[in-house]
Amino acid sequence: MASDTFRNLPEEKRRRFLEAAWKEFTTCSYAEASINRIIQEAKISRGSFYQYFTGKHDLFLYLLKSLISTISQGFLAQLTVHGNDLFEAILGIFDLILWQSSSTREDLPQARISRLFQLNADLEPTQFIDQLDLPTIARQTKELLEQHGCEIAPEQEEAVLFLILAAGFSSLLAALRCPNRQDHFRAQLQTQLEIIRKGLTPP
């Protein structure tokens, strides 16, 4: 993750570095991305780069985590819009990401997600899920579901959350990679969420 040196950089220098990093990772696949091009674009030395991050993988994970943070904020807004209905909020953020991913503004987080998935065939949903604080989110998810009559045992919290996240991220990934089948993958996600909802709700 980012070092204290990076976090303490002047805002303009940190912003320039991150813009250079995003440009590289949304233009090339992870395998083809070059630290040399990033430091040339950001106008820093190679030594400075390694004071900020341990390497390319460390930087890539930092960028993924920043995307997750942005998506999480959008998801909280969707929860408010949908009256804390977790399943409707998931569909809401799914629709929002797909709609904004087609934007010509390359600095939008949703457009960046789309490019990452398109450029990296081996990028899997678990790589996003791994960046989450699962125990905390699992407890919050349990509380939301119980508001709608679902019953979850404490030892099932993380398993239920992972099931929901896996369904959401898998469908999103497929929809971003196959734009002409987005309606199909949305319907598939909706069906999966209904199965989860009914399975959690007492008869």
List keywords for this structure.
2 domains; 203 residues; 11 helices; mainly alpha; single chain
- Give the total of beta strands: 0
pLDDT < 50 runs, ≥5 residues: none
Specify Rg, calculated over alpha carbons: 19 Å
Helical residues, percent: over 70%
- Structural class assignment: mainly alpha
The biggest sheet, with number of strands, parallel, antiparallel or mixed sense and barrel status, is: none
Structure description:
The protein is mainly α. It has 2 domains: 1-54, Orthogonal Bundle (Arc Repressor Mutant, subunit A); 63-200. 72% of the residues lie in helices and 0% in strands. It contains 11 helices and no strands. It has helices spanning 4-7, 11-25, 35-42, 46-52, 56-81, 86-101, 109-119, 125-129, 134-147, 157-177, 182-200. Helix 5 (56-81) packs across helix 6, helix 6 packs parallel to helix 10 (157-177) and helix 6 (86-101) runs antiparallel to helix 11. The longest helix is centred in the middle third of the chain and has 26 residues, at 56-81. It starts with a helix and ends with a helix. The model has no long low-confidence stretch (mean pLDDT 87).
Concise account of the structure shown:
The chain is built from eleven helices and no strands. The protein has helices at 4-7, 11-25, 35-42, 46-52, 56-81, 86-101, 109-119, 125-129, 134-147, 157-177, 182-200.
